[in-house]
Amino acid sequence: MLPLDSPPALHAAAPRCKPQRLEARVIDKRVAIVTGASRGIGRAIAERLAKDGRHVVLVARSAEGLAATDAAIKAAGGSCEIRPCDIANAADVQALVDGVAETHGRLDILVNNAGITRDTLLLRMTDEQWDEVLNVNLRSVFVACRAALRPMMRGKFGRIVNIGSVSGLSGNAGQANYAAAKAALVGFTKTVAKEMGAKGITANVVAPGFIETDMTDILGDTVKTAVLPNIPVRRFGKPEEIASAVAYATSDEAGFFTAQTIVVDGGMAA
Ligand code: NAP
Q1: How many angstroms separate the CA atoms of 85 and 93, rounded?
Q2: 232: which residues sit within 8 A by CB, 6+ positions away?
């Protein structure tokens, strides 16, 4: 285990962020980045964090896709902005996080929610399907977290939530790439929590079960019907039910809550 205060070893591989100009830019709301905020779970998280008084930076590839979230938050009196970014590109992720910290003079909350599936049985899985899912679902989280630590340390406060999946806890036929990425998030997040706990930064995973979004819409009625008997509450979850867990894990009062995986799955994986 590395000692907590061993910055040379701890940060040897991390590129240095540009110096932040904090004066006059600091806003009084906590600033939260939410990736994948254009629809589904990410949109619900963004709307909930804005309702809870955060300034939310909405991230997805498509600015048009984010416009509806932006409009809904502002109509409800919340504060947000749109920053399109393809998280498959590590340099763009780094620039996104640096840019938010520089613009606002702070970064308090990071929710790595954006994710993709490229499902097929392992026998048929291509290298490209493996790499694409690991890159978007795991590597982007590493890059975003690494970039977020310096502004969070500067603010002596940070809340990181990485969105996992029950597939990463139990495995799931047809999802070797996705389950591997989501399982890795758990070990990664616990490590962030252990390295950063003394700095006021917490890191947790929220692992959803089946939630009603575009990602599960494509499953078709046969699969959905087959899944239901395995869910004790006998229904799919709603994105807002994941957002509630994220709201707690990113709240000021959750400072003693870290290195955990919150499973929100209607009891399926128990
Ligand atoms: P979704 O409805 O498919 O939405 C995915 C979001 O991610 C969209 O906003 C999409 O916007 C964005 N996105 C995808 N690729 C991106 C990229 N390369 N760069 C930036 N943004 C990107 O997904 P969801 O169902 O809400 O799932 C959200 C998270 O929960 C994912 O991590 C998923 O693995 C996890 N999860 C979901 C379920 C479920 O049942 N739905 C269960 C377990 C875990 P653009 O297309 O505009 O980029």
Answers
A1: 7
A2: 266, 267, 268, 270
Tens of pLDDT, residue by residue over 14-50, are 444 444 444 447 889 999 999 999 999 999 999 999 9
Active site residue 178: yes
3-state secondary structure of 238: coil
Kindly give the distance from the C-alpha atom of residue 184 to the centroid of ligand 1, in angstroms, as a whole number.
Answer: 17
User: pTM of the prediction?
Assistant: 0.93
- State both tokens at 192: 């962030």
Strands 261-264 and 109-112: unpaired
Instruction: From the CA of 210, give the closest atom in ligand 1.
Output: 40
DSSP 219: T
Number of separate helices (H) and strands (E) present in the chain: 11, 7
Which stretch of DSSP H or E encloses residue 194? helix 176-196
What gap in Å lies between CA 118 and CA 128, rounded to an integer?
10
What is the DSSP track for 62-82? -HHHHHHHHHHHHHTT-EEEE
Distances (CA, A) of 57 to 32, 100, 118, 173: 6, 8, 27, 35
Q: Which listed residue (66, 70, 178, 265) is catalytic? A: 178
The partner residues of 266 in beta bridges, in order of sequence, read none
Kind and range of the H or E element at 186?
Answer: helix 176-196
